[in-house]
């Protein structure tokens, strides 16, 4: 059956303002069930965890439900879900517990800086995987010469946040594991765009951010709890020493965690289906991916036909994310022009610091990014193309 785009869009109140929200790669809008869950948590009353009274018990239940929801989304275990304010904070925290002087780390020019700088600043020796600047691909073959017995971790993105490139993470993981190294996979951009199976891709750690898939600003890193038991992060003396709690600093945003669970449930229900939540998520996200890529194929074909538009990257496998420049117009000015037409896009480096450097455009303002998510429709694409045509 076709993807029920009208029903999906109706769940997002923000879309009623008439704008074409093509800025999802920087953060999606929030469906009504998430808004309701957060509001209900505050209305009902919540307290800190571990107490003896009902409000505290509600927070205990919220945290447990959130871990289970995130685990279902990515194919992990609830007792291996670390929750925090965002992926960057969690990655910094974990990088210090995983690598240090005397180790080697392998990072890539494809990645968002949040999966680069935390590793290069550990004091470990850094080895770089390079990107093909024409295709936007991250060749797997180079990793054989980068990974050795001293490699502690290989950090790589499951999808580029500007080019959409989906590298062969499983093949890279096979090389890493053969050498005894760990795989830290940045799934922030990949998770909203299709089914995720962290085990199949060989991820020892899988990072994601709920605000990229309809949730609030909460980050998560998922790992095997047995692996987490081997790591000792810095922590406050009286804070829990259990896994995964030892990796979580401070008091959680409990109402937002309830919103994360609601966001996962919303994704699982986008298309009719039966089975466990995990099974429904796999089916629903596969349908969403097909919907996005169908629209994206039309968008790319039109962009490539415009002589005044330069589209970056031609990866074989990608998310529905376009990164382009318009001749004679600075990226920021293009974004401002489109904003006046009610089309929301981003411009600049989008924290893909190394990749925009490899493309040779970082110092000239980067490029314009337009990304499709499950609630975008053909009208959004047409409005973007019309706005770009006016700049010819």
Automatic annotation (TrEMBL):
<dbReference type="InterPro" id="IPR015422">
    <property type="entry name" value="PyrdxlP-dep_Trfase_small"/>
</dbReference>
<dbReference type="InterPro" id="IPR000192">
    <property type="entry name" value="Aminotrans_V_dom"/>
</dbReference>
<dbReference type="InterPro" id="IPR015424">
    <property type="entry name" value="PyrdxlP-dep_Trfase"/>
</dbReference>
<dbReference type="InterPro" id="IPR015421">
    <property type="entry name" value="PyrdxlP-dep_Trfase_major"/>
</dbReference>
<protein>
    <submittedName>
        <fullName>Cysteine desulfurase-like protein</fullName>
    </submittedName>
</protein>
<feature type="domain" description="Aminotransferase class V">
    <location>
        <begin position="21"/>
        <end position="384"/>
    </location>
</feature>
<dbReference type="Pfam" id="PF00266">
    <property type="entry name" value="Aminotran_5"/>
</dbReference>
<dbReference type="InterPro" id="IPR011340">
    <property type="entry name" value="Cys_dSase-rel"/>
</dbReference>
